[in-house]
Amino acid sequence: MHNNRTTITQFIIEEQRQIQGATGDFTSLLNDIVTACKVISNLVNHGALVGVLGSAETDNVQGEVQKKLDVISNEVFIQSNEWAGHLAAMASEEMDEIYPIPQKYPRGKYLLLFDPLDGSSNIDVNVSVGTIFSILRCPEGVQNPTVEHFLQPGTQQVCAGYALYGPSSMMVLTTGRGVNGFTLDQNIGEFILSHPNLKISADTQEFAINMSNMRFWEPPIRRYMDECLEGNTGPRGKDFNMRWIASMVAEVHRILARGGVFMYPIDNKNKDKGGRLRLLYEANPMSFIIEQAGGMSTTGRERIMEIVPKSLHQRVPVILGSKNEVERMISYHLAEQ
Ligand code: AFP
């Protein structure tokens, strides 16, 4: 029975075979990313036993306090991906500047962007966290990429994915040909295809938003949420349920599994920063996955994947998930204009 199981490597190789001119470079890059995620999964699993919990007592570029595991996961990602010759440079939510591949290694044609440990406020309380990544092509002829080469809209992504470190560790990926999920078999150390061709239901009765920000919300979000909360006695005519994990990877994963909407909208608290979530490390890769699974992703006013980034650590409002609910929220934003 075990012979029928498809490993993530086999899956990626078979997918690449269907693309004319594929050199195998991309397959190897993904393998290195998978290795990094397995290492992080192992560290997260062992937690206090290997001394990785708690604060690193440093701030990242966003002014957020870094956890030890944020810093360690960032190093794991760099070490796993810098040597093989597939990348020209990397950028991470945890680093102020881009990371060009050191001269001692060959340079390749891809750019890798990542949030090594998303939802890290959950680490010390043993709640799910994850890694998010996005792969772009380094523009033709560019040997020494600079920040501007990373500022490509999400529609240019070659691949996006996340690893979820939850009750089981999973990897979910898209290369623009649908979304597939793999579960880590701890005994053999391989991700095995377990959730082929994930699709998000168009309708849902579940939303995820940080309700503590309610007093800062703009009218379209307030309207949408008021209507949901009125339940079957209100205009929606049905009851809604709520979830908030404070770990975007876990929220997106739930939406892929059973539908739902996730919102981190612009509000009067985060307006100066442009939103809460990071465009290049969180919003773009998750939007690619959500769209490929039949869902939608927007700021409320524009499709996230079409935003032309202005800076490496740019933040954006995010509304994503089941299509009919996201469309409804877009219409509420349009009605406000
Ligand atoms: P951290 O990685 O700093 O914990 O941030 C997680 C996150 O970017 C995203 O994964 C969550 O959805 C969101 O922030 C949680 O935000 P709140 O702190 O407002 O709940």
Polypeptide structure, described:
The protein has eight helices and 17 strands. With 337 residues, it is of the alpha+beta class. It has two domains: 2-195, Fructose-1,6-Bisphosphatase, Chain A, domain 1, CATH 3.30.540.10; 206-336, D-Maltodextrin-Binding Protein, domain 2 (3-Layer(aba) Sandwich), CATH 3.40.190.80. It has an eight-stranded mixed sheet, with helices on both faces. Strands 12-11-13-17-15 form a five-stranded mixed sheet, sandwiched between helices. Strand 1 and strand 2 (65-67) form a beta hairpin. The protein is globular, with a radius of gyration of 20 Å. 1,6-di-O-phosphono-alpha-D-fructofuranose is lined by residues 64, 118-121, 210, 246-248, 277, 282. 1,6-di-O-phosphono-alpha-D-fructofuranose (AFP) binds at residues 64, 118-121, 210, 246-248, 277, 282.
CATH architecture label name of the largest domain: 2-Layer Sandwich
Strand order of the largest sheet: 4-3-5-6-7-8-9-10
CATH superfamily of the largest domain: Fructose-1,6-Bisphosphatase, subunit A, domain 1
Q: Count of DSSP E strands?
A: 17
Q: Biggest β-sheet, characterized?
A: 8 strands, mixed
Structural class: alpha+beta
Helix content, binned percent:
25-40%
The oligomeric state of the chains shown is: single chain
> How many DSSP helices?
8
Which kinds of small molecule does this entry bind, naming each only once?
1,6-di-O-phosphono-alpha-D-fructofuranose
Termini separation comes to 58 Å
Say what the CATH topology of the largest domain is. Answer: Fructose-1,6-Bisphosphatase, Chain A, domain 1
How confident overall, as mean pLDDT? 94
Q: What is the radius of gyration?
A: 20 Å
CATH class identity of the largest domain: Alpha Beta
Strand content: 15-25%
Shape: globular
Helix-strand sequence: HHEEHEEEEHEEEEEHEHEEHEEEH
Count of the separate structural domains: 2
The poorly predicted ranges are: none
